[in-house]
Amino acid sequence: MPDGVLVFDVDGTLVDSAPDILAAVRYSFSAIGLPDPDPVAVRAAIGLPLAGLLSVLAPADRAEELSEHYRAYYAEHLLDRSQLYPGVAEALAGLSRHYRLAVATNKRASNAYRLLSGLGVLPHFCALVGADQLPPKPAPHTVRRAVAASRGRGLWMVGDSPQDILAGRAAGLRTYGVVWDHPVERLLSVRPDILGRDLHHLVELLLE
Asked: What is the pTM of this model?
Protein backbone atom coordinates (compact mmCIF):
# COMPACT_ATOMS: atom_id res chain seq x y z
CA MET A 1 0.00 0.00 0.00
CA PRO A 2 1.36 3.49 -0.82
CA ASP A 3 2.53 5.43 2.24
CA GLY A 4 1.72 8.98 1.15
CA VAL A 5 -0.98 10.59 3.34
CA LEU A 6 -3.52 13.20 2.26
CA VAL A 7 -5.30 14.90 5.16
CA PHE A 8 -8.74 16.44 4.64
CA ASP A 9 -10.91 18.84 6.58
CA VAL A 10 -14.65 18.03 6.64
CA ASP A 11 -17.01 21.02 6.90
CA GLY A 12 -16.78 23.20 3.81
CA THR A 13 -14.14 20.94 2.24
CA LEU A 14 -15.77 17.56 1.66
CA VAL A 15 -19.26 18.30 2.96
CA ASP A 16 -21.61 21.23 2.53
CA SER A 17 -22.77 21.04 6.13
CA ALA A 18 -23.70 24.71 6.44
CA PRO A 19 -27.51 24.17 6.42
CA ASP A 20 -27.42 21.80 9.39
CA ILE A 21 -24.87 23.86 11.30
CA LEU A 22 -26.93 27.01 10.74
CA ALA A 23 -30.08 25.20 11.90
CA ALA A 24 -28.33 24.07 15.08
CA VAL A 25 -27.04 27.57 15.80
CA ARG A 26 -30.50 29.06 15.27
CA TYR A 27 -32.05 26.45 17.54
CA SER A 28 -29.54 27.09 20.31
CA PHE A 29 -30.08 30.87 20.12
CA SER A 30 -33.85 30.45 20.21
CA ALA A 31 -33.63 28.02 23.14
CA ILE A 32 -32.06 30.68 25.39
CA GLY A 33 -34.07 33.61 24.05
CA LEU A 34 -31.50 35.27 21.81
CA PRO A 35 -32.44 36.67 18.39
CA ASP A 36 -31.45 34.79 15.24
CA PRO A 37 -27.78 35.29 14.38
CA ASP A 38 -26.76 36.67 11.01
CA PRO A 39 -26.56 33.64 8.66
CA VAL A 40 -23.68 35.24 6.76
CA ALA A 41 -21.71 35.51 10.01
CA VAL A 42 -22.50 31.88 10.86
CA ARG A 43 -21.29 30.66 7.49
CA ALA A 44 -18.10 32.71 7.82
CA ALA A 45 -17.37 31.09 11.19
CA ILE A 46 -17.88 27.48 10.05
CA GLY A 47 -14.63 25.60 10.46
CA LEU A 48 -13.84 27.15 13.81
CA PRO A 49 -14.21 24.90 16.86
CA LEU A 50 -17.66 25.28 18.42
CA ALA A 51 -16.45 27.60 21.19
CA GLY A 52 -14.83 29.86 18.62
CA LEU A 53 -17.88 29.85 16.37
CA LEU A 54 -20.20 30.83 19.21
CA SER A 55 -17.80 33.45 20.56
CA VAL A 56 -18.07 35.50 17.38
CA LEU A 57 -21.87 35.30 17.37
CA ALA A 58 -22.98 35.76 20.97
CA PRO A 59 -22.00 37.25 24.33
CA ALA A 60 -19.28 35.25 26.05
CA ASP A 61 -21.39 34.69 29.15
CA ARG A 62 -23.98 32.73 27.12
CA ALA A 63 -21.48 30.42 25.39
CA GLU A 64 -21.86 27.45 27.71
CA GLU A 65 -25.67 27.43 27.46
CA LEU A 66 -25.50 27.78 23.70
CA SER A 67 -22.98 24.95 23.41
CA GLU A 68 -25.21 22.55 25.35
CA HIS A 69 -28.23 23.25 23.14
CA TYR A 70 -26.17 23.22 19.96
CA ARG A 71 -24.55 19.86 20.68
CA ALA A 72 -27.84 18.19 21.62
CA TYR A 73 -29.60 19.47 18.49
CA TYR A 74 -26.76 18.98 16.04
CA ALA A 75 -26.15 15.37 17.11
CA GLU A 76 -29.72 14.55 16.09
CA HIS A 77 -29.80 16.57 12.86
CA LEU A 78 -26.31 16.51 11.34
CA LEU A 79 -27.49 14.54 8.29
CA ASP A 80 -30.75 16.38 7.65
CA ARG A 81 -29.49 18.50 4.74
CA SER A 82 -25.72 18.06 4.64
CA GLN A 83 -24.34 16.64 1.43
CA LEU A 84 -21.04 15.98 -0.29
CA TYR A 85 -19.84 18.66 -2.65
CA PRO A 86 -20.01 17.66 -6.33
CA GLY A 87 -17.32 15.20 -7.34
CA VAL A 88 -16.09 14.51 -3.81
CA ALA A 89 -17.16 10.86 -3.71
CA GLU A 90 -15.41 10.17 -7.02
CA ALA A 91 -12.29 12.10 -5.98
CA LEU A 92 -11.96 10.20 -2.71
CA ALA A 93 -12.50 6.86 -4.43
CA GLY A 94 -9.75 7.59 -6.93
CA LEU A 95 -7.27 9.07 -4.47
CA SER A 96 -7.74 6.27 -1.93
CA ARG A 97 -6.40 3.77 -4.44
CA HIS A 98 -3.04 5.55 -4.51
CA TYR A 99 -2.77 7.35 -1.16
CA ARG A 100 -3.74 6.94 2.45
CA LEU A 101 -6.54 9.36 3.30
CA ALA A 102 -7.10 10.86 6.75
CA VAL A 103 -9.33 13.47 8.39
CA ALA A 104 -8.32 16.30 10.72
CA THR A 105 -11.39 18.28 11.73
CA ASN A 106 -12.45 20.88 14.27
CA LYS A 107 -15.68 18.89 14.75
CA ARG A 108 -16.06 16.32 17.46
CA ALA A 109 -14.65 13.06 16.13
CA SER A 110 -17.91 11.22 16.78
CA ASN A 111 -19.91 13.73 14.74
CA ALA A 112 -17.42 13.64 11.86
CA TYR A 113 -17.51 9.85 11.92
CA ARG A 114 -21.31 9.75 11.76
CA LEU A 115 -21.44 12.42 9.05
CA LEU A 116 -18.92 10.75 6.75
CA SER A 117 -20.44 7.34 7.41
CA GLY A 118 -23.93 8.59 6.62
CA LEU A 119 -22.70 10.13 3.37
CA GLY A 120 -21.01 6.89 2.35
CA VAL A 121 -17.36 7.96 2.24
CA LEU A 122 -15.99 6.88 5.63
CA PRO A 123 -14.43 3.65 4.24
CA HIS A 124 -11.97 5.72 2.19
CA PHE A 125 -10.26 7.01 5.35
CA CYS A 126 -7.76 5.19 7.52
CA ALA A 127 -7.70 7.78 10.33
CA LEU A 128 -10.02 10.45 11.74
CA VAL A 129 -9.00 12.96 14.39
CA GLY A 130 -11.30 15.57 15.93
CA ALA A 131 -10.78 18.70 17.99
CA ASP A 132 -12.33 17.07 21.06
CA GLN A 133 -9.17 14.95 21.19
CA LEU A 134 -6.46 17.58 20.63
CA PRO A 135 -6.10 21.38 20.27
CA PRO A 136 -8.05 22.56 17.22
CA LYS A 137 -6.68 23.94 13.98
CA PRO A 138 -4.85 26.25 13.27
CA ALA A 139 -2.71 24.34 15.77
CA PRO A 140 -1.11 21.43 13.88
CA HIS A 141 -1.86 18.72 16.45
CA THR A 142 -4.87 17.09 14.74
CA VAL A 143 -3.07 17.06 11.39
CA ARG A 144 0.04 15.47 12.86
CA ARG A 145 -2.02 12.88 14.75
CA ALA A 146 -3.97 12.03 11.56
CA VAL A 147 -0.72 11.43 9.67
CA ALA A 148 0.76 9.36 12.49
CA ALA A 149 -2.41 7.27 12.83
CA SER A 150 -2.29 6.58 9.09
CA ARG A 151 1.21 5.12 9.48
CA GLY A 152 2.41 6.99 6.44
CA ARG A 153 4.22 10.05 5.19
CA GLY A 154 2.27 13.30 5.27
CA LEU A 155 2.00 15.00 1.88
CA TRP A 156 -0.97 17.37 1.61
CA MET A 157 -3.50 19.12 3.81
CA VAL A 158 -6.75 19.87 1.95
CA GLY A 159 -9.09 22.46 3.43
CA ASP A 160 -11.33 25.45 2.83
CA SER A 161 -10.36 27.76 5.68
CA PRO A 162 -7.31 29.65 6.90
CA GLN A 163 -7.21 27.35 9.94
CA ASP A 164 -6.74 24.33 7.67
CA ILE A 165 -3.95 25.91 5.64
CA LEU A 166 -2.08 27.20 8.68
CA ALA A 167 -2.37 23.86 10.47
CA GLY A 168 -1.19 21.91 7.44
CA ARG A 169 1.77 24.21 6.90
CA ALA A 170 2.75 24.03 10.58
CA ALA A 171 2.61 20.23 10.34
CA GLY A 172 5.03 20.28 7.42
CA LEU A 173 2.53 19.39 4.68
CA ARG A 174 1.86 21.10 1.37
CA THR A 175 -1.53 22.79 1.34
CA TYR A 176 -4.45 22.77 -1.10
CA GLY A 177 -7.14 25.37 -0.54
CA VAL A 178 -10.53 24.48 -1.99
CA VAL A 179 -12.87 27.39 -2.63
CA TRP A 180 -16.25 25.88 -3.59
CA ASP A 181 -18.77 28.65 -2.86
CA HIS A 182 -16.74 30.40 -0.15
CA PRO A 183 -15.21 33.89 -0.45
CA VAL A 184 -11.80 33.32 -2.03
CA GLU A 185 -10.22 36.22 -0.12
CA ARG A 186 -10.00 34.29 3.13
CA LEU A 187 -7.81 31.63 1.50
CA LEU A 188 -5.72 34.09 -0.47
CA SER A 189 -4.77 35.73 2.83
CA VAL A 190 -2.91 32.58 3.97
CA ARG A 191 -1.43 31.63 0.58
CA PRO A 192 -1.98 27.87 0.17
CA ASP A 193 0.46 26.11 -2.13
CA ILE A 194 -2.37 25.39 -4.56
CA LEU A 195 -5.79 27.05 -4.76
CA GLY A 196 -8.62 25.24 -6.55
CA ARG A 197 -12.29 25.93 -7.20
CA ASP A 198 -13.06 22.27 -6.38
CA LEU A 199 -11.14 18.99 -5.94
CA HIS A 200 -10.74 18.37 -9.68
CA HIS A 201 -7.35 20.06 -9.86
CA LEU A 202 -6.11 18.10 -6.84
CA VAL A 203 -7.04 14.84 -8.55
CA GLU A 204 -5.33 15.95 -11.74
CA LEU A 205 -2.23 16.96 -9.81
CA LEU A 206 -1.93 13.70 -7.88
CA LEU A 207 -3.25 11.08 -10.28
CA GLU A 208 -2.62 12.28 -13.83
From this structure: 0.95
Q: Provide the annotated active-site residues.
A: 9
Domains in the chain: how many in total?
A: 2
Decide if 101 contacts 95 (C-beta within 8 A). yes
Q: Would you give per-residue pLDDT tens digits along the chain (208 residues)?
A: 689 999 999 999 999 999 999 999 999 999 999 999 999 999 988 888 888 889 889 888 898 999 999 999 999 999 999 999 999 999 999 999 999 999 999 999 999 999 999 999 999 999 999 999 899 999 999 999 999 999 999 999 999 999 999 999 999 999 999 999 888 999 999 999 999 999 999 999 999 7
**Number of residues that make up the chain:** 208
CATH of the domain at 8: 3.40.50.1000
Angle at 14 (CA atoms; ends 175, 72), nearest 5 degrees: 120
